[in-house]
Amino acid sequence: MANILVIDDEELVRITLELILKDAGHQVAQALNGIGGLEKQHQTPFDLVITDLIMPEKEGIETIRELHKSYPGLPIIAISGGGRIGNQDLLSMADKLGAVATIAKPFTPEDVLSQVDFALSH
Q: Which of 24, 49, 63, 84 could form a disulfide with 34 if both were Cys (CB 3.0 to 4.6 A apart)?
């Protein structure tokens, strides 16, 4: 199974994703924001990164751009609950910047696992 990094400023989302992914046999690490996520990726390269788009300190769009530049083959899944401009606009932007899949919040375990399977096979 895959070694996956989850980047999200919401603890409940990180825990939920970790439980879903671990139940499916994946190894999971967490980061609170893009800064921490980039540091973890530099230390221990992951097979897949799942990142929220709206976070303090370093937002997901910037994180995706930096990950895509430094690790061009790394599959990235963007997740978002929206915010002021709505999650579809943000997710569409993430897709254009290199995310191989997107997940809208709220999500189901099936949503997550199907997108993870797709991203890992991409």
A: 63
